[in-house]
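Predict the holo structure. Ligand: flavin-adenine dinucleotide.
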Amino acid sequence: VRTLATPVRSNHYAKLTPADVGEFCKMLSGPSSVLTTIQPEGADPSFRTVDPSELDTFNHDWMNKYHGKSQLVLKPKTTEEVSKIMRYCNEKNLAVVPQGGNTGLVGGGVPVFDEVIVTLAGLNKIRSFDEVAGTLVCDAGCVLEALDNHVAEKGYMMPLDLGAKGSCHIGGNVATNAGGLRYLRYGSLHGNVLGLEVVLPDGRILENLSTLRKDNTGFDLKQLFIGSEGTIGLITGVSIITPRRSSAMNVAVFALETYEDVQKVFTQVKTHCGEILSAFEFFDQESFDVVQKHATAHVRDPFEARHPFYVLIETSGSNKDHDDEKLQVLLEDLMESGLISDGVLAQDETQVQALWSLRESVPEAAGKMGKVFKYDLSMPVSKMYDLVRDMRKRFEDHSIYSRDFDQGKPVGAVCGYGHIGDGNLHINIVANSYDPEVEKVIEPFIYEWTSNVKGSISAEHGLGLMKAQKIGYSKDPTSIEFMKKIKDLFDPKKILNPYKYIQV
Ligand code: FAD
Ligand code: 2HG
Ligand code: ZN
């Protein structure tokens, strides 16, 4: 069942021909660089087309919610190859979808119809690392976790971390301006990215792989590509500042009875450990239950009883004794004031991972349980949980919700969790299918609610296909008008990632 009012394929775009595919075969090195169901014209006799099912992983997204029908996946290995592809597609009016690790959650990285998929996975080399400044320059297709492992050997860490780190690319992270679990401490990619190399829609290369921290010469063009979701250029290289890896890390999870207490604990934690705090996450009991029942790897419940709310705090510093002492004082204070009902503190690296997995496993476990309607919102922390409650109440009023799909109801869980430290709420509504009737109960209610509290309908996942027509809930008409001008400036033929991002 399609959840979205699917757009109509625009005749503005050419249909791929065997001659086009033949040209791509000529411009890319090696037969494995072209994956297609179309027999290319003039190709080497050894060339083999593939079964459509071999393109499935590129045509479907991580949630299996968005499905395209592309017949061609191109796997360039160099920036020059990307440039040749784009020059050709621009000339021929062929629509293109840039794809990184395909872990995006808004349908931005998969085709809507027959767009050519350009995966950046073949551009996966580390170009340089400056061990004094901590600046890393790498290809856009490098996997985030691989980069983190690489810089860890030199005592550094990537300034971002997310549950999808094992698959997502740094280029995809930049294209979505991914937030994640280290945002509270290290901030946005708008601050951490120092330079980008970008192939523009007409094939020109914008070479801006600077490693300078400070550079006030003209407009800072790279900022436009951060969060542009593949609509104005293909990012092929990234220069990024990496912070020093902390030698002392502590992780604790607290159980709490009310959302008011979550907020009070947040204030207390900042008071006691503000300068070493590196994450402050929360998840509610429904999220916790979903993880306990559905996470692939068993995630042990460290508490004796279930509680309505949980917070995870992480501290990173350079002096273990000092940090331990601070945490001890915090714990005593929280226990004494009765703000927390229970708490566990990781004693070693294994326990650090185990506690983190209570939080990080929510998206994966929800996906195992059913089809997930995901919302990713920014708003004042004080308002966040009202929305989760209002959403649950709405499902109850429509009589379509019961925990674990009891009584055959179509909605089985409403999980509220997220990055409290960044004012970012995630709501995962687990349904038994992507049923448009369920979606109607959620939307536009959820967007209007968020807009009314002056929040953002996308804190970190982006607009993609899911929210292509929704930007008006968070941006004024003048801003949207100028965004469209920027799109036209870079991509006058509108060949990059059509039907997505800003379609109002
Ligand atoms: P893709 O999914 O392949 O693409 C995403 C978008 O970027 C698409 O529009 C695509 O066209 C474009 N794109 C990709 N690569 C390029 C490129 N080189 N040049 C131009 N455009 C490109 N996000 C967060 O912000 N915070 C989180 O904590 C977080 N956690 C997640 C946890 C899980 C389990 C999952 C599955 C996703 C999570 N995400 C999170 C979503 C997040 O957007 C992605 O994980 C990640 O940033 C996307 O990278 P990717 O390489 O997979 O990009
Ligand atoms: C997270 O914080 C990610 O875990 C994913 O941003 C959230 O799946 C989601 O809705
Ligand atoms: Zn998140």
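Residues 370-461 form a domain with the Alpha-Beta Plaits fold (CATH 3.30.70.2740). The two ends are 24 Å apart (CA to CA).
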